[in-house]
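Our consortium's second objective concerns turning raw sequence data into structural hypotheses that experimental partners can test. To show how far this objective has progressed, the report includes one record in full. It was chosen at random from the queue rather than selected for favorable results. The single chain below, 271 residues long, was entered without modification.
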Amino acid sequence: MARSLRLFHHFTFTAFFSAAVSAQMVSMNPFDIAPPTVLSDVKALRAANPKLTSVELVDAANKLLEKQGIAFTFSFDEATCLAIDKSIKSMKNPPAKLNLRTKLKSVGAEPATLTLPPADFANNECSKCSVTLPVLELTDKEFVALMLGHNIKFHLPVNFIVSEVVLVDEMDLVTIKKKWRIPFRSAPLGVSYDENVLYLGVFEPELKDISLAVFGEGVFQFATREEAESNGKGTLLKEFPKDPANPNLAFMRFENRGLKQVVRYSNACGR
């Protein structure tokens, strides 16, 4: 599976948020990160062209992904959620959905302001609040997002929490062999034989024949479900190390051409 190189610029996030809707914080209009729409666009493409094969749909979906990025959900820590909620409640007539505004600073330049999509206050066992951004690449320290038509590399703030799937030793189920940072919680469909690629299912029933490939380097591509499941179908483990703080914890074992692979993940909340 080919992966394309990405050009980007370097910026630095600070951890300050505001729910203000005016542009008075800086002398310029805020830089917008638009809400991601790639999955809804792929659904619309399938609806408009129901005879598309899985391979054709994946090819079209990856072209959209290159232009838009994947919808990546970042959870905020409790302090950030409280700060956002307090800021919203302090407004006299807040709109139903209010974009977030965060400080953005480039190296050696004056601070600017970045506008993010509205926070989601689902307030469930997965997260008190979160934001979904169009992301092209993500590592443990940085992520590349689309802004004003450009691929921009940001430092990952400490209060941006990402979901992970972890490849563990198949004997002790504890020793970590590999980590993948995933854009949404979903049951794994497979792991490549070289253990670099994790395949995730997508929730939309119209797209059940495709999957999302998450590479160890932190990039993403769509793939067919057939490709994902060619690495062996998974079996849920009934006995595994429990975590009282995570009621959604699960382990799945794949038998991949004689290789046993076990992944630890968290089920999607409310599913």
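The partners drew two points from this record. The longest strand covers residues 9-18. The two ends are 30 Å apart (CA to CA). Both points have been shared with the crystallography group to help prioritize constructs.
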